[in-house]
Design brief:
By secondary structure, the protein is mainly alpha-helical. It has a single domain, classed as HPT domain (Four Helix Bundle (Hemerythrin (Met), subunit A)), CATH 1.20.120. About 75% of the residues lie in helices and about 0% in strands. Helix 1 packs antiparallel against helix 7 and helix 5 packs antiparallel against helix 6. The chain is elongated. The chain starts with a helix and ends with a helix.
Length: about 120
């Protein structure tokens, strides 16, 4: 499996990742780290208590990582979540809607992590 095939299988934007990281070797290095970096666990943990500060910080961090890697769906949902909890913004979503969004992030993340695992296995 090539990196482009990986990105296609996980609904990522390989060209966006190339714009940011510029070198395929760096994309390879950082996409492999993504599934192990704990960013999703941080979002889920913050969501358990609905701590506004933790929700904003973890979702904002996830948005940045995902945007840099061309993981556009995850970046967009993380962006929406971070805006919901941005200091000074009035909440627009119910706690249930936030929970649904976090579950959606989890599902997309699992698909992405599974794709990365298949990619890594194909290189062995």
């Amino acid at each position: 499996m090539t990196l482009k095939e990986l990105y296609s299988s996980i609904d990522g934007d390989f060209e966006q990742a190339q714009k940011v990281l510029r070198v395929e070797k760096l994309i390879d290095k950082h996409i492999r780290k993504f599934a192990k970096n704990g960013v999703i666990e941080n979002v889920i943990k913050a969501a358990e208590g609905l701590d506004p500060t933790a929700m904003f910080e973890t979702a904002h961090a996830m948005k940045g990582v995902c945007a840099n890697l061309g993981l556009v769906k995850l970046a967009q949902i993380a962006s929406d979540l971070s805006e919901e909890f941005r200091p000074g913004n009035a909440r627009q979503m119910t706690d249930e809607q936030v929970g649904d969004m976090v579950r959606e992030i989890g599902a997309i993340y699992r698909k992405t992590a599974d794709g990365i695992a298949r990619y890594e296995n194909s290189l062995m």
